[in-house]
Amino acid sequence: MYSVKAHVLELTALLCAHGIEDVVVCAGSRSAPLAHTFASCPRLRCTAMVDERSAAFTALGMCAALKRPCAVCCTSGSALLDMAPAVAEAYYQRLPLLVISADRPEAWIGQMDGQTMVQPGAFQNFVRRQVSLPEPRDAESLWHVNRLVNEALLELRHAGSGPVHINVPLAEPLYDFSAESLPEARVIRREQSRKFELSPGMREEWQSARRPLIIVGQELADLGLEAPLKALMAKGCMVFAEHLANLGAIEGEQGFSGLFDLVLASPAESLPEALRPDFVATVGGHIVSKRLKQYLRAHPPAVHWHVSPDGACPDLFQCLTRAVEAWGRELLEGLAAEPCHADPAFAEAWIARNGRVAAMARDFDPEPFADATVMQCFLASMPEGSALALGNSSPVRNAQYFPLPKDVEVSCNRGINGIDGSLSAACGYAQASGRPTFCCIGDLSFFYDQNALWRREIPANLRILLFNNGGGGIFHFIPGPEKSEHRDAFIAGASALSAEHLAKALGMAYRRAGSFEELRAALLPFCTAKPSSGPMLLEATTSLEASAQASRRMLAEAVKSISG
After folding, report:
1. Disulfide-capable partner of 310 in 147, 159, 315, 542 (CB 3.0 to 4.6 Å)?
2. In angstroms, rounded to a whole number, what is the distance separating the alpha carbons of residues 555 and 265?
3. Rounded to whole angstroms, what are the CA distances from 263 to 81, 248, 557?
């Protein structure tokens, strides 16, 4: 049985018709007609949560794992605003997150009634479409509901992907659940027919390039980029991609560099001109490496194309010449089909330096017990075919120094790069993917987002590796914060918290490691236990100074390997 609210029934029927199967439902009263109807619908899988911020990030993680739209539903009032960080992350990461909010009737907004505020437009800067449904009173208003919902759901995957907000005003009574079935709702489909082709001007620029470079930013796995990239590398083109690009299938091949950040650790003026590209094409989302951004801004290529399905034109290197509206695979296949006149010396120079840096990282001495060396030890033990969810700041950077096992999918909240929601997104990813999911996260991110674990069931395949160094380790590594006597307390967020009691209260298997001997002993069950054996938390207690020391040594060794 379902709610008798006609617009709730219409919305639910259209969610199913448009292929949405997963909804994270937050507790609340005004949203009861939505929550009951979603939970009663056999075609929807519902996850119950309480904290709206965590719930939205959980749904975001599910979007990343499933590579399709997932929804999150909340009650009225400030509950909606708690979802803003995840909505912004979805917008900049181009993930199809659907936010459904219950609302009070429009007549009662601004009348000092409880849990009321202006909800339409709450995410106006971070959604591709926002609609507020009328409460149907006749055939025309029901048609209006149908049209608005169809339009909103179509925008989730139109010209790329992104978040959408559907606001649902609900008048009392709220708890009449006597409707026996969902309606046969009209479904609007969008058909798109276009074939991307290189223009004559683009062909000329490509064939004139002598030092071509393709940079792949954050992407979901299995987008079919590997084959055209391999063809381009065979023609002398260099490819740069971090772990977040999910190109593990071609990592390590000639012409591919995942270690360009370490190669660029040397002062820019000391790097030969042979390394400077004259043609750059960027595909996908965000790039972590600050050194690459600075290098290309200081030595801009003559040509820079940015490729995206919505034709966006971010001028990241301050030298953008073309914004190309196409899927990354389309453009790469187009380039691979054209003649390439790359100077072999360009790729050879990068390959030589990349090889020396890779050898250094492979043989890097795992001392002292620090964030980077713990990451090194963990990645060497991580099982093939698993998922790696990285927290921002130090974890995402430290993981980039070392190779990944085969067939590992990587995710991270790099849309905004905030620390909030990393654990929640990992929970959503684990729940939706079914893969053993390893969340590498710092202590500030973990404790900030501990409500991710406030749910009925923590995914049994979730493994949390907590890097607890007592604060924000990055602030002991980057230059500047040491100038303030208030660094630890007010900049780095120093604390002495441990996750042991939290893990035990939640029924999670817990291990602590403060040395390599303890770490290796703990990693055995942590990495080899069956995914169904239950969630685990491994807390590696490192120190801020040792972690900063290890990171500085990594960079120094990279510079030495290149110059030597």
Report:
1. 159
2. 6
3. 42, 19, 11
How many CB atoms sit inside 10 A of residue 410's CB?
23
Q: What is the DSSP letter of 488?
A: I
Cα–Cα distance for residue pair 393/446, rounded to 1 Å: 12
3-state secondary structure of 94: coil
Quick check: 265 and 555 in contact, CB under 8 A?
Answer: yes
State the pLDDT at residue 107: 83
Q: Side chain identity at 126, as an amino acid letter?
A: F
Indicate whether this model's pTM tops 0.85. Answer: yes
**Would you state the torsion angle of the CA atoms of residues 74, 78, 84, 86, taken in this order, to the nearest 10 degrees?**
-40
Q: Terminus-to-terminus CA distance in the chain, angstroms?
A: 73
Residue 24: phi and psi, rounded to 5, are -90, 120
Residues of the chain with CATH 3.40.50.1220: 200-356
Q: What is the sign, positive or negative, of the torsion defined by CA atoms of 166, 172, 173, 175?
A: positive
Is residue 115 within 8 A of residue 108, CB to CB? The reply is no
| 111, 294, 296, 555, 556 from 291: Cα distances, Å | 53, 5, 9, 12, 15
Cis omega before residue 368 (within 30°)?
Answer: yes
In sequence order, the 6+-apart residues with CB closer than 8 A to the CB of 519 are 369, 374, 377, 378, 513, 540
For residue 407, CA distances in Å to 221, 403, 404, 435 come to 10, 12, 9, 11
112 backbone φψ class: left, alpha, beta (φ>0; ψ -120 to 50): left
Per-residue model confidence as pLDDT tens digits over 126-156: 999 999 999 999 999 999 999 999 999 999 9
Q: Which CATH superfamily is domain 200-356 in?
A: TPP-binding domain (3.40.50.1220)
Which is the CATH superfamily of the domain at 364-563? Thiamin diphosphate (ThDP)-binding fold, Pyr/PP domains (3.40.50.970)
User: Residue by residue, what is the 3-state secondary structure of 368-409?
Assistant: CCCHHHHHHHHHHHCCCCCEEEECCCHHHHHHCCCCCCCCCE
Residue given tokens 């490496």 in the structure block: 289
- Which band of pLDDT confidence, cut at 50, 70 and 90, is reported for residue 537? very high
CATH 3.40.50.970-classified regions of the chain: 6-169, 364-563
Three-state DSSP class for residue 28: coil
The fold of 6-169 is: Rossmann fold (3.40.50)
pLDDT digits (tens, 9 = 90+) for 289-339: 999 999 999 999 999 999 999 999 999 999 999 999 999 999 999 999 999
Q: Using alpha carbons, list the distances in angstroms from residue 111 to 74, 80, 117, 533.
A: 21, 19, 9, 52
CB contact set of 524 (below 8 Å; sequence gap of 6+): 381
Residue labelled with tokens 């000639």: 254
Pairing of strands 45-49, 303-308: unpaired
